[in-house]
Amino acid sequence: MGSVAPNIAELDASKFNITRSTNLRDVPLPGSPEELSHSHCTDHMVTVRWTDVNGWETPEIRPYGNLSLPPTASALHYATECFEGMKVYRGYDGKLRLFRPDLNGQRLNNSSQRCSLPGFKYDEVKKLVAKLLQIDGPRWLPEPGSFLYIRPTVIGSGPHLGIQVPKEALLFIIAVPWPDFTKIKKNPQAERPKGLKLYASSPDSIRAWPGGFGYAKLGANYGPSLQAHGKAQALGFDQVLWLYGQDRQVTEAGASNFFIVWHNAAGKLELVTAPLDNELILPGVTRRSVLELVRERLSENFVGKLAPLQAVERTLTIGEIEQASKEGRIVEAFVSGTAYFITPVAMIRNEETDISTLGANGEPAGYASQIKSWLEAIMYGKEQHDWAYTIEEEKQ
């Protein structure tokens, strides 16, 4: 007789074990030190254990608290860890929404398998997040126009030291009050800056490379970059603009995707961002949404005073940006991502050269602002759109 394949359980968000907290945490005020700490989580968390023998176990919602891991856990030794960044929005109609959560679930699944962790049905992730927010959303996100940051994470959690594929893993999801970076001023007395200041990486510092894992959201992408980020901030810059190769290709700005609006050498108005095909950059959910909105709404017709432009995904070098700035062809630049959302870029320092990425009059032209307003309308329910996933809440 042939061997019988083991019954490995899939990730299933339809069943839950729920343990409600009896010691509710204080909800921090907007702008408070607790909110600015990025670490003051909501009352509950989701955990789901996986083993190579049985697959995914029943998800648990339990009081937020520390995890228990053996010192030999794979995540602590071999960087078997990946995560996602999402937000849940309290709409102006009072409803809670996630923005394109299946794209986050799909990317988490891809990242998990890239770092030797188990795969799963990616559309179950949004259901896990929704269940957590059904419980914590009413108390932690009461005000329309506000959001919480959501961090789903997968780690190798078993006690098996040695170079091997993890036999145990843990998926957990936490929710965190998060400051709105687009509204924060470092100096309350100072004039609001016109955009971020980016510090171009040096040739001997590389964030990602072809054949690597720059396209996956792994902790191993971020830890080695933090030192460069700290040095840039010490010099008065907001983020590192990561460059790659002898031709100094523009890849990402910190943990955000980078866009530039310019007139190309032939005079054509374009929105340009790095491509995905070389797998150097993260396929950002906001990045994808920016490109799709521009192609749908801004490729043929004026929007107010904004002229039509073409969205282009291609290799872009810092030399091209510097030349365009010298010739007055830059219209504006911005970054996109879950944390920074849509934020203008004012300048880039490349070695000893400061490159202005503002328009001819020293101001952003308004493309980023328009794209941001379109996205906010979807996220907060002002526009009904299939990118928004509505969460049904428990009655209090």
UniProtKB/TrEMBL annotation:
Gene3D superfamilies: 3.30.470.10, D-amino Acid Aminotransferase, subunit A, domain 2. Keywords: Amino-acid biosynthesis, Aminotransferase, Branched-chain amino acid biosynthesis, Pyridoxal phosphate, Transferase. Its EC number is 2.6.1.42. GO terms for molecular function: branched-chain-amino-acid transaminase activity. The keyword Nucleotide-binding does not apply. One of its GO terms (cellular component) is mitochondrion. The modification N6-(pyridoxal phosphate)lysine is found at K217. One of its GO terms (biological process) is L-valine biosynthetic process. It catalyses: L-isoleucine + 2-oxoglutarate = (S)-3-methyl-2-oxopentanoate + L-glutamate; L-valine + 2-oxoglutarate = 3-methyl-2-oxobutanoate + L-glutamate; L-leucine + 2-oxoglutarate = 4-methyl-2-oxopentanoate + L-glutamate. Pfam families: Aminotran_4 (PF01063). Its cofactor is pyridoxal 5'-phosphate. Belongs to the class-IV pyridoxal-phosphate-dependent aminotransferase family. This is Branched-chain-amino-acid aminotransferase. It comes from Penicillium bovifimosum.
